Amino acid sequence: MAVDNAWPCPPAFEKDENALQFVEQMTTNADMVQERILAEILSRNKEVEYLKRFKLDGATDRETFKSKIPVITYDDLQPEIQRIANGDRSAILSAHPISEFLTSSGTSAGERKLMPTIKEELDRRRLLYNLLMPVMNLYVPGLDKGKVLNFLFIKSETRTPGGLLARPVLTSYYKSDHFKTRPYDPYNVHTSPNEAILCADSFQSMYTQMLCGLLEREQVLRVGAVFASGLLRAIRFLQLNWRELALDIESGTLNKRITDPCIKDCMGKILKPNPELAEFIRLQCSKENWEGIITRIWPNTKYLDVIVTGAMSQYIPTLDYYSGGLPLACTMYASSECYFGLNLNPMCKPSEVSYTIMPNMAYFEFLPHEPHSDGLTRDSPPKLVDLADVEVGKEYELVITTYAGLYRYRVGDILRVTGFHNSAPQFHFVRRKNVLLSIDSDKTDEAELQKAVEKASQLLREFNTSVVEYTSYADTKTIPGHYVIYWELMIKDSANSPTQKILNECCLAMEESMNSVYRQGRVADNSIGPLEIRVVKNGTFEELMDYAISRGASINQYKVPRCVNFTPIMELLDSRVVSRHFSPGLPQWSSERRRM
Fold first, then answer.
1. How far apart are CA 573 and CA 335, in angstroms?
2. Cβ proximity of 238 and 212 under 8 Å
3. Has residue 107 got a pLDDT over 60?
4. pLDDT digit string, tens, across residues 299-347
5. What burial letters (b/e) apply to 287-319, b meaning 16+ CB within 10 Å?
6. Among residues 111, 199, 263, 406, which is most buried (max CB within 10 A)?
7. Helix, strand, or coil here: 204?
8. What's the total number of domains in the chain?
């Protein structure tokens, strides 16, 4: 067993020491903590309808729990979730009232998944947040001497037919008193005022947060966003709006496009004329070369605080370019379903990031992951492994049981065990299961992509044209990134081939078929750019197969990959492109959920 239990240096403050002692206590007795957590969850929820259905009969031990409660996915639980959403307030999943739904970035039938939560989960999330800086302070001293420029945003929320709020987990947290009335913490002083973070208009929010970050450029010690893609959008925003921002700083007046009364009142107290700073911004931003722009504008930045694991790793080269190679810190691992753990070595290389699961957050099980298998068979029950019994080097799918009423729920994250901190395992996030394409929080799987291609190809029928083959990739060189779909077409009548206009409309038709998370990213969040179709020469996909076979693939088992990211393959595809087409408009999207 690879064990890591040494901190790099002693904590400097008593508060930090207490936090680190808590981490040691939880991870030293991981299996005992897990046994207690499961017993607590089952004891408090023993009368709920779901557990009674499987005749648990009040048992709280692991053996009985595993023998009677099935491993499930969201689709298995959807009838119960829909009843709660429609207003049923009986104890279906949890003895505690469901306070709201947290909308997952994963989707079911094209809509965000609804994850039930209870009020006390906010306390549990805050507990994990409160561990992050005591760990970081061991690696980066002096973070209490300045501020953090963290681009934080709320997203749209709606209500279910039964009146419960449904919104993303971070929107729930930012709108809670835990965040809005948080006590002063010298290690977490934001340049962005709450009024800007809580503004629902993404332009006004970003503009104000960027303006405040520029005003306090010398106080900023770390720059970040939740995801790497979000920080790159902020840089792109600065590229597009630096002239207006500099004018506001020079004149001490706020851009007329900022109409939110709370922001206007707040900025009226902050914004004062500063011609010298305005000239500096103009000098830096007018240069053609933006390499190192982050450290040029915020010279005291020690690291970037962003998630760059999983699909976000594709943004690392661009972040390195804009930051001059600043360290990238991935501090915690969390989802809408549950907050899981933290990175105890936050200044490690992105490829070495491992998260230590905190055993007090939920009850965790692990389904051994075999490629090309769903992990379960009809002939035998799943053999799940407990938290303390996972093996280094092996991959698992995460399965959770939570206080809020998820029991043996498959999260869909594939994790690889890299070691242990005391008796708690550390995991490298490998990927989301079944996800082909992702730019931001969107997750598009193969079935969704196939459906979108089929929908768009209907527009080609009047031209007696069909899609012979296709593949895709997530292009993150543009900001925001966008989906690229390679099409090989069979045109049966060259005199009646599809027009540029029709192929552009095919792009939009594909976008209309995407799930609601993708469409929200396109319409409301501006986090995804217009979808692009690149038409390639006839025979291109045969060349692709020949290339794969030349590298050892079996001709009998070869299948066209529906997503590519291997440079030689992408170079081959791009060398065969005959035309490029982009979505001419925005797909339809509404914050209201479809009725089920």
1. 35
2. no
3. no
4. 999 999 999 888 788 788 889 999 999 999 999 999 889 999 999 999 9
5. eeeeebbbbbbbeebbbbbbbbbbbbbbbbebb
6. 406
7. helix
8. 3
Do 97 and 24 share a structural domain? yes
User: Does 324 map to a domain?
Assistant: no
Last residue of a domain, one of 283, 301, 319: 301
243-273 residue pLDDT tens = 999 999 999 999 999 999 999 999 999 999 9
How far is C-alpha 72 from the chain's CA centre? 22
Same domain for 366 and 245, yes or no, is no
Per-residue DSSP letter, 480: S
Relative to beta strand 363-368, strand 339-342 is unpaired
Beta bridge partners of 399: 365, 410
How many CB atoms neighbour CB 484 within 10 A? Answer: 21
Residue-wise DSSP of 28-73: HTHHHHHHHHHHHHHHHTTTSHHHHHTT-TT--SHHHHHHHSPPB-
Per-residue buried b or exposed e for 524-550, using 16+ beta carbons within 10 Å of the residue's own CB: bbbbbbbbbbbbbeeebbebbeeebee
For residue range 152-199, what is the model confidence (pLDDT) as tens digits?
A: 999 888 999 999 999 989 999 999 998 999 989 899 999 999 999 999
Domain boundary among 432, 448, 470: 432
Q: What is the pTM of this model?
A: 0.83
Range of the domain at 24: 14-119+333-372+383-432
